[in-house]
Every structure is written in structure tokens, then in C-alpha cells.
Write a structure and sequence with these properties.
The protein is 70% helix and 0% strand. By secondary structure, it is mostly helical. It has one domain. Helix 2 runs antiparallel to helix 3 and helix 2 packs parallel to helix 4. The radius of gyration is 12 Å and the shape is globular. It starts with 5 loop residues before the first helix and ends with a helix.
Length: 77
Amino acid sequence: MDSRPAADRAFDAASRLKLGSWEAVESVAVLAATHPERPESRPLLAAAQDAATQLKAGTWESVRALAWLGRAAAAVG
């Protein structure tokens, strides 16, 4: 059983995600926005932003993920 704090486990899982869907992009963006002080947030956010440029926009999933990317970018700086 993994007894590490939830944030540690989340960042570990996020580092292994394949960012090939809007859901994955959103998950990383939410994590970065929630923990902007963590050093892992900046590279994960950059990877999510790069992945978003390769995904087709125009769905509600894309709008939500892009909104979270904007919020995360503002939080992380």
C-alpha cells in the first residue's frame, strides 16, 4: 500500500501519463493549478500545453481542459 501523501502520488502518476487526450491534459493542468509551488508543476504544465496543440479542439472536453491550462499557467507563473 502506498502511504505517501496524495499530492506525491498524483505527481508520480502524472509523470507517467500519456498526454494524448483532453482528459489527460486536464488532469495535469488541475494538478499544476492545485500545487503551483511544486517544482514538478512547471514541466508537467509545459508538457500538457504542448500536447494540447496536437489535440483537436471544439468539444466541451477541449474547452474545459484549455480553461484549466489557462488557470494553471496563471498559478504556476
